[in-house]
Specification:
The chain is α+β, with helices and mostly antiparallel strands. The chain contains 19 helices and 29 strands. It has a six-stranded antiparallel barrel with strand order 9-10-14-13-12-15. It starts with a strand and ends in a 12-residue tail after the last helix. The C terminus is likely disordered.
Length: 751
């Protein structure tokens, strides 16, 4: 028997159908091993040697793998074709070797970028060794994240500065904070424009002033109302006679956007479908596991020759030969990392009916389908006409532009979304020739003000990180989720990021004491180093040492700084943000106001405390507002049912039935259940901490396993509980949770 080990249970079921008899396909359900979560698991004095452990909750999965390996003649490690996938294969192989289960067995590494019968069989026919360079890149990345976490995070916890400081997430938070500083520092500048309504016979069109009195009118030329009034007086009152002085005609084309990479898929799904990065990648993962799209973590824009041929055949059959370019469209990838750049995200089949999908999967598949088809279609064609209309007294010239699409090309199928206003919208002009008489029927002066830079959305922040060379296809969604989950940023109704008070504070602290960590060039260089390691151009240990030596020095220096000095530094950095041009004086006693830190978060307090007890809380958008104390986390309050609630109070989490309270410090709004609350209120024995099984693919909510409960062991997610006999794997748990029928409501029947 041959054993094939993949990451996902869904993928295992799909692939087992393709392979048939003589094959057993099982899933590791993601990573199975990680660093021991304690100080010293990365030994910086011994070439960064690492201590590993089986991840909590993965013991059953390891037992399944080892049991199946004992029965197998050959083992095929088929985790995902990227750095993390290579690491999973390496971990599994290392575990099997340590258990001495591979004697007389052949072990192969296979990788495929789409889950089709042809791709899977081709991969099995061309196995390879585990790519140690990719594994080394993973080890460097994991060691760096661990060292930063155990080096910097305790400094934050001790001083109530934040929850954690990640290598890439800190840069993302700083980008959001820096953009907010730009917006706060921005001062609008007034300017005016002059539009005109014109008639040529019975045809009307619009134009804009481009020259007055021999002076070219640029965007900022007319700076105030007084200057606009002078221009209006010089031109006169409509109706004004004018003549077409010049005509320029040209043909233009527009090319289709490249097929999706991970980054552009997240950006476009955010613009068009309003999906978060996490939601996009979760949905794309499902499509990939069903064999409907190619691997969704990639920074390549190329397509395979077979795919291009199939796409061109589909276009010719569906839209006609004119929509098929003479030669295939080729797009150049901007990726620096050839190891992870294989093929763009595309559908796996173009010769069959659309798959039967619904919800998010249907929406995202449609987006990928249209983008892929459009990228191999001909250019859209336009006729552009520009006309200069001069007043009869030669005082002013107005400029009119008309653009007409003459051939749809790729726009028949798809048009890329934009983060800013589209200035290329089509507009038509009547047929004009030089010398034609035109009448100006109305003048339309309009006041404008320059606008501050826009706040980042998920789409524009991912785009910015990609431009800076920070992060990689597998990390963008995690970065976006982390900075929101840790409450360093939040999104408004327009889905734009605002830094929270905690985001401002941690950005100020890191900028002062860990400047390199949040420096975009330093972080981008680190990403390049990881790429060099994955391509075999850099040594693992030397790369780690080059990063850790200066970082360790920064941690050592920051450890000796007094909290009062830190607060003074943060106040200096945040003064303008908090008080603008004001002095920041206490309205109660005249003392100096500044940032204060507590376990509930940052707030503004008076330097004369305790004599003066004046405080201001920082609101969601960081505008100081009067308050007696920092706001408590009321968003975490949960009604559990039966009159029992979970709340977060002055002394931490607790449960209450209105008459009695009981501490629940080991629980959160996500992990607490009604059964747990009842036992806490009853004063029973302390329950074992819940075990995280992983996120429910259907809801994105964490699934927890509770070894003991009122009726025995059970699993819980999003207020849905299911009794179990033993700890299940993630796939089984998700199936039980998602298929549980709602309980019948108790109540009185109507007579």
């Amino acid at each position: 028997m041959n054993l094939l080990i993949v990451e996902s249970p869904s993928k295992a079921k799909t692939i087992e159908k393709y392979l048939g008899k003589g094959w057993r396909v099982i899933a590791s359900v993601g990573h199975v091993r990680d660093l021991v979560p304690e100080n010293g698991s990365v030994d910086t004095e011994n070439d960064f040697a690492m201590r590993w452990q089986i991840m909590p909750g993965k013991e059953r999965q390891i037992k399944l793998i080892t049991d199946e390996v004992k029965k197998a003649d050959a083992v095929y490690l088929a985790s995902d074709p990227d750095r993390e996938g290579e690491a999973i294969a390496w971990h599994i192989l290392d575990i099997l070797r340590a258990k001495k289960l591979l004697a007389g067995k052949k072990v192969y590494r296979v990788a495929f970028h789409e889950i089709t019968k042809k791709a899977v069989q081709a991969a099995i026919e061309s196995p390879r060794e585990i790519d140690q360079n990719l594994v080394d890149a993973y080890l460097v990345r994991r060691a760096l994240d661990y060292l930063i976490g155990f080096g910097i995070s305790p400094l934050l916890w001790r001083r109530n500065l934040g929850k954690s400081a990640g290598r890439v997430q800190s840069v993302a938070v700083k980008l959001v904070v820096d953009r907010e500083r730009e917006i706060e520092a921005f001062r609008p500048v007034e300017y005016w424009s002059l539009g005109a309504e014109m008639m040529r016979g019975a045809d009307g069109f619009a134009a804009a002033l481009s020259m007055f009195g021999g002076e070219k009118i640029e965007k900022m030329t007319i700076g105030n109302r007084a200057r606009m009034d002078e221009i209006l007086a010089g031109i006169g009152s409509p109706v004004i006679d004018a003549t077409v002085a010049a005509i320029e005609k040209k043909k233009t084309t527009r090319r289709a956007a490249a097929p999706f990479t991970t980054s552009t898929l997240q950006q476009e799904a955010a613009r068009k479908l309003y999906f978060s990065s996490k939601r996009t990648m979760t949905t794309a993962q499902k499509l990939y596991e069903q064999g409907l799209i190619t691997y969704m973590r990639t920074d390549a824009t190329n397509l395979s020759a077979d795919a291009v041929g199939a796409i061109r055949e589909y276009i010719a059959a569906t839209y006609g030969d004119r929509f098929v370019p003479k030669t295939p469209n080729v797009y150049v990838t901007k990726s620096k990392n050839a190891q992870e750049a294989h093929e763009a995200i595309r559908p796996t089949h173009f010769d069959s009916a659309a798959p039967d999908l619904s919800g998010d999967e249907a929406k995202l598949y449609d987006l990928i389908w249209k983008r892929t088809i459009a990228c191999q279609m001909t250019n859209a064609e336009f006729d552009s006409v520009a006309a200069d209309i001069e007043t009869a007294d030669h005082t002013a010239v107005f400029h009119a532009v008309g653009t007409t699409r003459t051939f749809d090309g790729f726009m028949k199928v798809y048009t890329e979304g934009r983060d800013d206003a589209d200035t290329s919208a089509e507009s038509k002009l009547p047929v004009l020739t030089v010398g034609d008489a035109v009448q100006i029927t109305d003048l339309l002066p309009e006041q404008h003000f320059t606008q501050p830079p826009a706040r980042y959305t998920e789409a524009s922040l991912v785009k910015k990180l990609e431009e800076l060379g920070i992060g990689r296809p597998s990390t963008y969604a995690a970065i976006m989720s982390t900075i929101v989950d840790r409450k360093y940023v939040e999104q408004d109704k327009q889905r734009r990021f605002h830094p929270t008070p905690g985001g401002w504070v941690i950005a100020a602290y890191l900028s002062k004491y860990f400047a390199d960590l949040v420096d975009v060039n330093f972080t981008a260089k680190t990403e390049d180093t990881l790429d060099d390691v994955s391509n075999g151009r850099a040594d693992k240990v030397q790369s780690l040492r080059a990063f850790w030596t200066p970082t360790d020095a920064m941690i050592e220096a920051a450890s000796g700084v007094k909290t009062t000095e830190i607060i003074d530094s943060i106040n200096e950095i945040m003064h303008t943000h908090l008080f603008g041009d004001g002095a920041g004086k206490c309205p109660k006693c005249g003392g100096q106001l500044g940032i204060k830190l507590s376990k509930y978060g940052a707030f503004v307090g008076c330097a004369n405390y305790p004599e003066c007890d004046y405080t201001q809380r920082l609101t969601a958008q960081d505008a100081p507002a009067e308050s007696d104390a920092p706001a408590s986390a009321t968003a975490n309050n949960v009604d559990l049912g039966d009159g029992i609630s979970f709340k977060v109070g002055r002394f931490g989490p607790y449960v209450t039935d209105g008459k009695k309270n009981a501490s629940a410090k080991q629980y959160t709004a996500e992990t607490i259940t009604l059964d747990v609350a009842r036992e806490l209120l009853a004063g029973g024995p302390k329950k074992a901490d819940p075990i995280e099984l992983g996120e429910n693919p259907a809801t994105g909510k964490m699934i927890y396993y509770y070894p003991t409960g009122r009726y025995g062991a059970y699993i819980s997610s999003n207020k849905v509980n299911v009794s179990v006999k033993e700890q299940p794997d993630l796939a089984t748990a998700a199936e039980l949770i998602n298929n549980k029928k709602p309980a019948a409501r108790r109540g009185f029947k109507k007579k």
